[in-house]
Each structure stands twice: as structure tokens, then as C-alpha cells.
Automatic annotation (TrEMBL):
It comes from Bosea caraganae. Pfam families: CheW (PF01584). Residues 21-160 form the CheW-like domain. GO terms for cellular component: cytosol. PROSITE patterns: CHEW (PS50851). InterPro entries: CheW, CheW-like_dom_sf, CheW-lke_dom. GO terms for biological process: chemotaxis; signal transduction. Gene3D superfamilies: CheA-289, Domain 4, SH3 Domains. This is Chemotaxis protein CheW.
Amino acid sequence: MIMTLPLGEKHFSSAQPESAVRRIVTFRVGDRTFGIDVGMVREIKGWQATTPLPHAAPHVRGVLNLRGVILAVYDLRTSIGLGVTDATATHVIVVVDVEDKTAGLLVDSVSDIVDVPVSAVRPAPDLERDEHGLIEGLVLLDTEIVALLDLGAVIRDGGAEAPAARQARVA
């Protein structure tokens, strides 16, 4: 089942040329808002149960068949250290293209599509565990801070659980 969500658009005026605007899709995981470039989003679909894989990283929810393509689904809640998502019919999978792969991100909900001036993107604070290295930048939208995800890091490393899992394999 493919869901088409009516997403409003917020446009921020800027004296910069059109090429200096970044269009992002925002979505929620718990009480946090994240964003990714709209060009990386292939589609948004309703939750569909996945088939777990043995010995998969903790943030890999499993795989599903998307019109003949086997798609790995990553639980973003697990990646950021908030535990495993108890997925319900209200959750969605954001299907993305990243690093020559198509993958799915399990999130609570998709919020909006927004245009953000590139100059408004701030670097994430240099913290020891800045969302576990998954954040490429931050944007202030009204009074809310949106964390822009580095999807390559989400898929490669998995965030919070990955270092412990790697250490366990080494020991």
C-alpha cells in the first residue's frame, strides 16, 4: 500500500539565489523532529511488517518486498538510542535512496516539506555522542530544532547500539 500524504509547504524568504535553498522532508520520532533532503525520498508508505534477519544489526528492523525489490528497513528510534519501535498502523516507512541503495526508515510520522536557506543550516554541536554521529546539521524552524540526518551513517553504523555491538564482536 502506498500512502500519499498531503504535506503543506513552508517557504522561507531569503535574499540568496534559489540554488541556495535546501528542501527537506521533516518527520517525527518520539518528541524529536528530523529532516532529510527531499531528493533522497523515493516514497512514503504505511507500516508493513518486516521479516527479521538473523544476526542483523540491532537497528535493522528487517526486510520487506517493495514491488519486487527486497528493502532493508532501519528503525530510527533504535538508531538514536530510544529503544525499539513498537510499530502500529500509524507508523510510516520513508523509502530513501542513499549511497546507491534503497532503504526504508521506520518513523512515527511524516510532518512537512520545508524550504530552508542553506545559510540557516548550523553544524551540530561537537558533543561526544551527538545523536551518535548521525546528525549532519541543525535548523531552527519557528521554535523547533530540526536535526538533519546523515542517512549514510544511519545505514552504515546504526547509531547508539552499533559501538556496543562492534565491541562485543571484537571481545
